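Hi everyone, sorry if this is the wrong subforum. Our group has a chain we'd like a structural model of before ordering constructs, and none of us has done structure prediction before. Sequence below.
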Amino acid sequence: MFQMRANIISAGLFCVTAMLPLNLAKADQVGGASWYAGRVNRSAFTAAHRSLPFGTKVFVENLSNGRSVTVTINDRGPFVKGRIIDLSKAAASRIGMSGVAKVRISTLGR
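Answer:
Right subforum, don't worry. Here is the predicted structure as C-alpha cells:
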C-alpha cells in the first residue's frame, strides 16, 4: 500500500514538473549586457534574449549604479560569450549604460 502511494505521488510530481515552462530556470540571470541598434525602434524599451519568449517583460538592473528599466523581449541574441541580453539604445541609456555593463535580469511575465 505504501509503495503504491509513493508511486502515485512520484507520478504526480513528475507530471507537474513536466508542465512547467523551461524558461523558469532562466528567470534570474547575472551577466553582461550590451546595446544594439539593429532592426529595432531605438526609442522603445525592448531587448534581445537567446531563449525567453517574445513579449516577455524583463526587469534589468545595472549592477554598477543600481539604475533599472523594464523591457520587452522582441528579438534573439546576444551571440557574444558572457552577454545575456542586448538592450535597445533607449533602455541602455535609461540604466546609464554606454557600452557593456554587468546586469541582473528578472522576468516579470508576459
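For your construct planning: The chain is about 20% helix and 35% strand. The beta strands are 28-36, 46-48, 57-62, 68-75, 83-88, 101-109.
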